Each structure stands twice: as structure tokens, then as C-alpha cells.
Amino acid sequence: MRGIRGATQIASNTVEAIYDGVVELCRALNEENGLSQDEIVWAIFTVTHDLDADFPARAAREAGGWSRVPMICSQEIPVPGSLPRVVRVLLHVEGGSGAGVRHVYLGGARALRPDLFTGPAGAPA
């Protein structure tokens, strides 16, 4: 078993923006780690307090390719000064020791964990 992290900063608190951002994140996680949904044991999504227009799991299920993955959504602690409009995900994935895991941080969310940022491939760190 291994854990894979990902995050993205959403453009605005709308259904469309959340949907688009989460789909992009799910697809990047799949591509960067060579994942199929059958390898994903579960996914936990969190959102910052300023995102409440939709559930990230809906986008992951409908267009992100994770229709059979058990998911849950939760809210992050509203720490003063934290990066706004962020969706984070933690995947629990079958197989491997964690070597070669590519955590994916998109857009402004790259600032959250520059020590873990490895993807997407070819993107500037």
C-alpha cells in the first residue's frame, strides 16, 4: 500500500470551477502514477472553508475516472493566512512501497508542499 497526495487551487467557488479543477487533478494523478481506478483503495478529499459550491468527489466520479472508488469529502481547518480555494486529496493505493510515487500539486497549490512536488512531468517546479 502507498499514499499519494495531490492538490489544486480552484479559480472560483462555482460548481464548474470545482469540477474542472478536480477532473484535472484526478487525471494528472492517474497519468503521473500510471493508476487505474481498480488500484485506488479510497480517496479523501478536503476543501478549504471558502469552497462549498460542490463536492469534489462528484467530479472525480463523473469525469475523473474514479466511478468505483470509495470517497469522502471534508473541510480543512480554516487557518488564518492559508492558501484559499484549495482542494486536496489523499489516495490510498494498492501495490508498491511508495518508491516512484509522484505527488501532484497544480497551479497555486504547488506552494503548499514544494518538497513533495514532482508532477506533472515537464512542469516547472
TrEMBL record:
Gene3D superfamilies: RutC-like (3.30.1330.40). It holds the Pfam family CM_1. CDD domains: AroH (cd02185). InterPro entries: Chorismate_mutase_AroH (IPR008243), RutC-like_sf (IPR035959). It comes from the Bacteria. PROSITE patterns: CHORISMATE_MUT_1. Keywords: Amino-acid biosynthesis, Aromatic amino acid biosynthesis, Isomerase. It is an enzyme of class 5 (isomerase). Its EC number is 5.4.99.5. It catalyses: chorismate = prephenate. The keyword Ion transport does not apply. NCBIfam families: CM_mono_aroH. This is chorismate mutase. The lineage of its organism: Bacteria, Pseudomonadati, Myxococcota, Myxococcia, Myxococcales.
